[in-house]
Design goal:
The protein is α/β, with parallel strands linked by helices. The chain folds into 2 domains: 145 residues, 2-Layer Sandwich (Nucleotidyltransferase, domain 5); 185 residues, ATPase, nucleotide binding domain (Nucleotidyltransferase, domain 5, 2-Layer Sandwich), CATH 3.30.420. The chain contains 14 helices and 14 strands. Helix content is 37%, strand content 19%. The strands form 2 sheets. It has an 8-stranded mixed sheet, sandwiched between helices. A 6-stranded mixed sheet has the order 11-10-9-12-14-13, with helices on both faces. It binds adenosine-5'-diphosphate (ADP).
């Protein structure tokens, strides 16, 4: 079956068409600047990128353009729309309602709407994507795959905050965690790579991209993760602060003369390694260049970022009473030997020994610890689209 995977944001829509039997990507692309001006970039199979600047006033038009790109007589990859057997949608927040992927019906749409106040920027955009696909492809089964679902196995002690319990009961304020599709995919893949049983392994997954999070996966179940009610908590990220004292918000507001929205903007968009570097960049390639050239801001940003990751790894080793395997994934995790080596240098107490030569790997599955390392260290490229396609196939075949 050919499965269309949709990741719909407020002004962009990413898509991939995946053959569920071969798991090959038949075509992929992105519609950008929806509601502003508009551009679609499409890459057919192994072909070259095709860019088309064209008006995209709304998501309905974006979906029409996706279909046009996929079925184009010269550069398309399918003969007609009928070839698309199912659509998988990435949904950011499933609250406590969704513990796994589900086939979309009106009740599911309503339930996604109900948890939208937990992700006001993301869930409404995801829903627009679902509606636009339903309009363009009536009758085609669709599946919702949630970023939060994998983390729903966390025990109460891991997901509760130390605030009045009534606030949890009334408003469901708690840790949810994100990047769940990636943490699930990578932890399973790690078990395969090690030839071990997933249900008998203690794994820590470090998803280090522009957004970054760590998870502790014990015996096949997530038991803790670093992102919280929103994706702002936990690690230091590209432009997000991660953990801070909540009082910092009011302090910033007073000192900088801004309102809550201003302080939130600062913590989401101007912080992280970008802010720490002295506004050099949020891109780790630039930061690594600066680090290697002795730039103080870049050294500070990378060291502080790595320190926070190693601290979480230590905490999660304690949470699981041990750790068998540490995985690095996403843009920086897959392509950043420097970051991996700084983090692992601090983990000698766990028995982690990095193989310097193997650690030079970029974007490929690889064991990067030495044979005598007590804890295995793996680089595992994530593939959230494939994970979404697999769930969709499972529910629709
Ligand atoms: P997101 O999906 O959250 O936008 P990604 O997983 O794509 O993020 O990761 C983006 C980050 O990965 C950027 O900071 C980028 O610099 C980094 N990255 C990508 N390639 C490399 C590389 N070769 N070396 C170091 N960092 C890299």
């Amino acid at each position: 079956m050919k499965i269309l995977v949709i990741n719909c944001g407020s002004s962009s829509l990413k898509f991939q068409l995946i053959d569920s039997e071969t798991e090959k990507v038949l075509g992929k692309g992105i519609c950008e600047r929806i509601g502003i001006d508009g551009r679609i970039v499409f890459t057919p199979g192994d072909g070259d990128k095709i860019t088309n600047d064209t008006a995209i006033p709304d998501h309905n038009r974006a979906i029409e353009l996706v279909i046009e790109a996929l079925t184009n007589k010269e550069t398309g990859v399918i003969g007609s729309l009928d070839e698309i057997g199912a659509v998988g949608h990435r949904i950011v927040h499933g609250g406590e309602k969704f513990t796994k992927s589900v086939v979309i019906d009106e009740d599911v749409i309503k339930a996604i709407e109900e948890v939208s106040d937990l992700a006001p920027l993301h869930n409404p955009a995801n829903l627009i994507g679902i509606r636009a696909c339903q309009k363009a492809m009536p009758g085609v089964p669709m599946v919702a795959v949630f970023d939060t679902a994998f983390h729903q196995t966390m025990p109460e002690e891991a997901y509760l905050y130390g605030i009045p319990y009534t606030l949890y009961e009334k408003y469901k304020i708690r840790r949810y965690g994100f990047h769940g599709t990636s943490h699930s995919y990578v932890s399973k893949r790690a078990a395969e790579m090690l030839g071990k049983d997933y249900s008998e392994l203690k794994t820590i997954v470090c998803h280090l991209g522009n957004g970054a999070s760590v998870s502790a996966v014990k015996n096949g179940k997530c038991v803790d993760t670093s992102m919280g009610l929103t994706p702002l908590e936990g690690l230091i990220m590209g432009t997000r602060s991660g953990d801070i004292d909540p009082s910092v918000v009011e302090f910033i507001m007073k000192k900088e003369g801004c309102d809550v929205a201003g302080a939130e903007n600062l913590l989401n968009k101007k912080s992280g390694v970008y802010g720490l570097s002295g506004d050099v960049s949020s891109d780790f390639r630039d930061l690594e260049d600066g680090y290697n050239n002795g730039d103080e801001g870049c050294i500070r940003a990378i060291n502080t970022f790595c320190y926070r990751v190693s601290k979480y790894i230590g905490a999660y080793a304690a949470a699981m009473d041990g750790v068998d395997c540490i995985c690095f994934t996403a843009g920086v995790g897959e392509n950043g030997p420097l970051v991996r080596s700084i983090i692992c240098e601090k983990l000698g107490f766990l028995g982690v020994k990095l193989d310097k030569e193997a650690n030079e790997v970029h974007g490929k599955d690889k064991e990067v610890s030495t044979p005598d390392s007590k804890v295995k260290v793996l680089v595992v490229p994530t593939n959230e689209e494939l994970a979404i396609a697999r769930d969709t196939n499972e529910l629709c075949k």
